[in-house]
Structures are given as C-alpha cells and as structure tokens.
Design brief:
The chain is α+β, with helices and mostly antiparallel strands and 432 residues long. It is 55% helix and 15% strand. It has 3 domains: 2-226, Glucose-regulated metallo-peptidase M90, N-terminal domain (Cyclin A, domain 1); 262-355; 357-431, OB fold (Dihydrolipoamide Acetyltransferase, E2P) (Beta Barrel). It has a 4-stranded mixed sheet. A 4-stranded antiparallel sheet has the order 8-7-9-10. α6 (121-135) crosses α8, α9 packs across α10 (201-211) and α13 packs across α16.
Length: 432
C-alpha cells in the first residue's frame, strides 16, 4: 500500500531508484512507528495521513543518517486551519519545543498538489522540527549539526536582503526570522531546485551540504554531486574569487557532473546488505572453515586469536570511510568488522597459505615415548620433541587420525610451507 500511494502522491519518491525506494519505505515505517499521530476536531487518522506526513519527513532527512527527528514524538492533525489558544491566532502549522507538531491536513495536501509553487506546509513545518532538534538533547544528525552553523553564516546576508526585499525569489515570509528563513529555503529547495540554484547558487550549495542531498539530481537518487564538497574548503579559505568561480560552475554545469563515487554509491545503497551477508558467511561458514585450516596448519590457538583481532581491527578502520554513507550504528558495524570482515579475511589468509605452496618436503621422526597427559595420549618424537610446535602438531595429528599407533616406531610426515610461511601437514605415514 505505501509504495502505490507514494508513487501516486509523491514525485520525490517516484524518481528514486528501486533500491532507494526500499530504503525510503523502510525509514518511513520506522518514523511512523516512532511518532504518535493524533486526530483533532473529529479528524480520523488514516494510513494515508500517517504515510504522507511521514514521507514528508523522510524526504527532508533522506540524505541524513539520523533521520528520526528524535525530539518530535507527537503529530496533531487538524482537518483545516486551527486556532491556537496559546498564540491566540489561527494557524496552518505549529511546532513546539516540547516535541509536538500540529498540521492542517487540507493545507498539507495542497502543499503537494502543485509540485513547483514553492509552498509546502509539510516540508516547512518539518524543517522547523529539524531545526528545533538541534536545540534539544537527543540523537540529532551530526552531519546536519556540523554544517548548520556554517549555513547560518552564509545565509545571514541573504536573510537580511530578503527582509529589505532585495531578494524576490524567496517567499517574503522567510524574512520573519532565521527559523522561518530556513523553513522557506527548504520549501524552495525541494520545489524549485533549478531556479534556486540559478538565483542563489551559494545558498543552494550549502543546503545541499547540510541536508546531504540535491533535489535537482533527479536521475541520481538526489545524491550530492562532487562540486558541493568544495564549498567548505573554499569558505574556510575566505576567497571571494574562488566562491564566485564555484557559483559560476554550478550555474553553467562546467563542473565534473558526477555524483558519489561508485564506492560511495555502493556503500549507501547496498552497504548494510553487504555487511549482513559478510557477517552471516563469517559466522556460519567462516568458523568451520577456520577450524579445518587450523587442524592442518602449524599455528597456536593464541596466534589465531591475534590474527583475528588484527583482521577485525582492519575491518573497523573502514568505519572512517563509510560511516557517512552507511545506515548502520557503530556497534553493529563492529560486529560486522570482527565476525564478518575479520573472519572472512583470516580465512582468505589461510586459504592463500594452503593453496599456494612454495616448498614441500618429507621428514621422518622416531617415536620415543607415549604418555598419558591431561588431554589424553601424548607422543614424544625425536628431534626437538614437544619443544617444536610442528612436532607437537604431528603428534596430535597421529593421535587424531590413527587407531593403532602404539606399535609404530617411526612416522613419516609430508609437509608443505605455504605462501605466508606457515607449515601444513599434508600426510603422515606410520612405520612399524
């Protein structure tokens, strides 16, 4: 039901790829479950109301990792314009610091009826909620928070010019205060991206950075193009000439028209599935395979754990490069790093050592003694005896694989040194 409804009512959703639509719907359900929808003045809350209001929130936060607008817990839906006793005025929408959003359902629907009129009550009020989220103690999105202060610095000049009516592109209501300016910019950002980019390229560019999406990139799941990332460095340099040059690039599309790299796109769309698959393989195939490699490779269990820790640590290093694009918590990623990536990597290491031999030889040992140890029968061989890890492995191999070894005088071992320098026992023959 949500997919068909969203395709009918939400052009933003229709333009997403099938994979991105799955992400959108998954987030939508989580948002709906997290918020309490309350019908006011006789309005009955339907699935359509919950889906479409939630979809507006997910549209706004689709480029962000923490998309829940965590301080918001209740949404009052009125059938039409409602009266606020607190403000003593009729309103279409209202946000409070306490986490309650109120909307006129009629006006919400009108906001999406005309796609490019730059008036959208849902996006406007949810932009306020996102703004308020920064002032509350909660799980606000770190990416959004990091760029918001810089966006306010960049936007101040345009805000003042709008107040003085020097800017005609943005709706005049945005000059009320910075809260309203941000909300009005969000409406224009989604409903008139091409015009916004042409009229106020620097402001559009920073909105892209802050919300981590580009509504003008319809064919690329609204992902931010490469040039947007240059804005921060340019702003920090303080070079007006470089800023003007970047703005001109945005206008004439002379920049390299790329979206995220193939790696970034893959991580964003399929990263969580890759991590889950790797973890499943690591746990259910990697562990038995590792036990088999260990049974024939001369290496201690302590060394195995050290190798597994190193491989897992290498997996954790990936977090630095993927966390901005991956919809996964750190503790979930850590499980993938050790159980998935780490387990798979250590098996690859052993596979390379096993299947790429660099030397093979045959060694014959005399069997000197049999003793009963804490773990069963122990065999002492000639040479370095039990002081040699290889010979200890040979003795264990004999006990595990031969029934009649008490009468044996010697054992002939064929061993192979693999690519990584680890010895493997290929075969043992008892000599009686």
């Amino acid at each position: 039901m949500p997919n068909n409804l969203l395709k009918q009512k939400k052009p933003y959703f229709r333009n997403l790829s099938p994979d991105a639509q799955e992400v959108f719907v998954d987030r939508l359900f989580k948002f709906m479950e997290d918020k309490k929808f309350i019908g006011r003045e006789g309005l009955v809350i339907t699935d359509e109301i919950k889906v479409l209001i939630s979809a507006a929130a997910i549209q706004l936060t689709f480029g962000l990792k923490d998309y829940m607008i965590s301080h918001l817990y209740a949404i009052n839906v009125f059938p039409r314009i409602f009266f606020s006793k607190f403000l003593n005025v009729n309103l279409k929408g209202l946000n409070t610091q306490s986490g309650v959003l109120s909307l006129s359902w009629n006006d919400f629907k009108e906001g999406y009826a005309i796609e490019d009129d730059k008036v959208n009550l849902g996006l406007h009020e949810l932009a306020h909620a996102l703004y308020i989220d920064l002032d509350e103690e909660g799980n606000y999105d770190e990416h959004f928070s990091a760029y918001f202060e810089k966006w306010e610095d960049v936007a101040m000049k345009d805000y003042l010019e709008l107040k003085e009516k020097k800017i005609t592109f943005l709706r005049e209501y945005g000059g009320t205060n910075m809260h309203e300016f941000f909300a009005v910019c969000v409406e224009h950002f989604f409903e008139a991206p091409k015009e916004f980019k042409k009229k106020l390229p620097h402001l559009y560019n920073y909105l892209m950075l802050m919300l981590n999406q580009d509504p003008d990139n319809v064919k690329g799941d609204y992902q931010v193009r490469v040039y947007a990332e240059k804005a921060i460095a340019i702003a920090e340099s303080g070079s007006r000439a470089l800023e003007e040059q970047l703005n001109q690039q945005i206008l004439n599309n002379s920049h390299i028209d790329e979206r995220y790299s193939l790696f970034q796109t893959t991580v964003q769309r399929n990263g969580i599935y890759i991590a889950m698959t790797a973890t499943f393989i690591g746990l259910f195939a990697g562990i038995p395979l590792l036990i088999w490699f260990w049974s024939t490779t001369v290496i201690s269990i302590g060394a195995i754990f050290i190798m597994l820790f190193i491989c897992g640590a290498l997996g954790l290093i990936q977090w630095k490069y993927v966390n901005e694009y991956l919809d996964m918590e750190y503790h979930q990623f850590a499980m993938y790093a050790f159980s998935g990536f780490g387990m798979c990597l250590i098996n690859i290491v052993f596979a390379l050592n096993t299947f790429i031999p660099i030397n093979s030889s045959t060694v014959t040992y005399e069997i000197l003694d049999f003793t009963n140890g804490s773990q069963g029968v122990e065999i002492t061989l000639s040479g370095e005896g039990n002081n040699s890890s290889f010979e200890r492995n040979v003795a264990t191999f004999v006990v595990d694989n031969f029934d009649k070894f008490y009468d044996a005088k010697k054992v002939m071992v064929t061993k192979t040194t693999g690519l990584l320098g680890l010895d493997r026992i290929n075969d043992c023959q008892l000599i009686y």
